[in-house]
Structure formats: structure tokens, C-alpha cells
Design goal:
The chain is an alpha/beta fold and 232 residues long. Helix content is 20%, strand content 34%. It has a domain at 29-146 and 199-230: Vaccinia Virus protein VP39 (Rossmann fold), CATH 3.40.50.150. The protein has helices spanning 25-30, 36-41, 61-66, 78-81, 119-132, 201-210, and strands spanning 11-13, 49-53, 70-75, 88-91, 104-109, 133-142, 154-157, 163-173, 176-184, 189-197, 213-218, 225-230.
Amino acid sequence: MGESLVREGYAGTGPGAITPDGCAVELYRRLSVGEEPDVIASVAPAGASILELGCGAGRVTHPLVDRGFAVTAVDESAEMLERIVGARTVRSPIETLDLGAERFDIVLLGSFLVHAGEDRVRDGMLRVCRRQVEDDGIVLIQREGVAHRSGLPWERVDASGCRIRIVSAGPVGDGVRSVRAEYDFGDARWTQTFRSRELSEERLAGHLAAAGLAVDRTLTDDGTWLLARPAP
């Protein structure tokens, strides 16, 4: 469903395969899952069909499969999809995904993908969310928290033992930042540079509305997870 193209402003270093947006496949295979499966399961009917956009190496996919959800996992990286077990996989850039008339109970856009530097990419992603969700379904979107935009550098230690450090987030024009992250497991180290656009509540709501979606509510105390529905 499309070839992977290297993206301007995105890069990665470290052992193993690196995807067009700078993600290291082995890194994402090692990282632990956080609260995402709990957040999703809190609003998902038992056995719901889930379209996971940007599944990576299955960090969230596999816990959802283990909970009995029917997951279709989408990623543009063949190397990432090779790590997926128990879910149907589709290789495609998110913004050009077309599964025809197929619809899902839940469409998941995690990993802060909604903050794509290019408006056309974000708008394409949100149109896919609306096109592939049932009219009575829901779209779950993960957005950046305040910590991702201030007080840099900051770091945390992942449950996997990886030390994750956001080194810098410098402006590159038109509200877009170039973010540099470092990941250190001790025996292996990776870096990733990517672009991120800060989105106010009003601006995000506008992008959602243009795609035919509307925010229903936030799902977490920090406001990073949103539940959206097809607009009336």
C-alpha cells in the first residue's frame, strides 16, 4: 500500500534497522508498554475491532491482542511489522491508508503522531481515522503533555531499564520544533530526531472538525488521551 520514504527532518542512529521517521526497530521492540492498553480497554467494548495506526513493533498491539481485541496493526515499516504476533498487519503510510469500506469500532492514533510537523500529514491521518471508524465508533488520540514542551532537557527511566532523554526541542519555523531524543539501555544506545508541531486546544479541535471528528472528552488526568467521535 505504498513505499516508505525518508522524511525531511527525521533521522535515527543506533544498531539495527531505522525506519523513515527515525525509529529504531530494536529499540521499540525492547521498550515496555505503559498505561496505553489500560486507557484503551477502559472505553473499548469486549472483543472490539481496533485499527491501530502506527503500531511499531507491537508495544501496544500485543497487550491489546492478549485482552481479546481484534487488532489490525498498520505501519509503513516492514521491519516493524515483522515483530507483530497475533494481529492482522497492513503496511502503509498512515495518511494514505485505504481499507475501502472496512470500518472499525475503535481507531487508535497513539505515539503523539497527531503532532506531525506537516499539516497535510496530520490532516491525512485524521481523515483516515474518520473514514475507517464506524459511525457510532470512537477515535482515541494521544497528544503531547506539557513535559514534552518545557523544562528541557528532561529524562526518565522506562520500566524496561532504558534511560530516555529529550535533549532539545528547537524551533525550525511555523510553530514546528526539531526534537532530539536519546535512548540508552547500557548495552545499546539510539538517538532519534523528529519534527513536532505544538497544537493548542483550539487548533487541534479545528483539525479534527475538518476531518469530520469532534472531541468528546479526555481520558487521562494529564489530558494526553482524547476520545473523539464522528461529528453529527
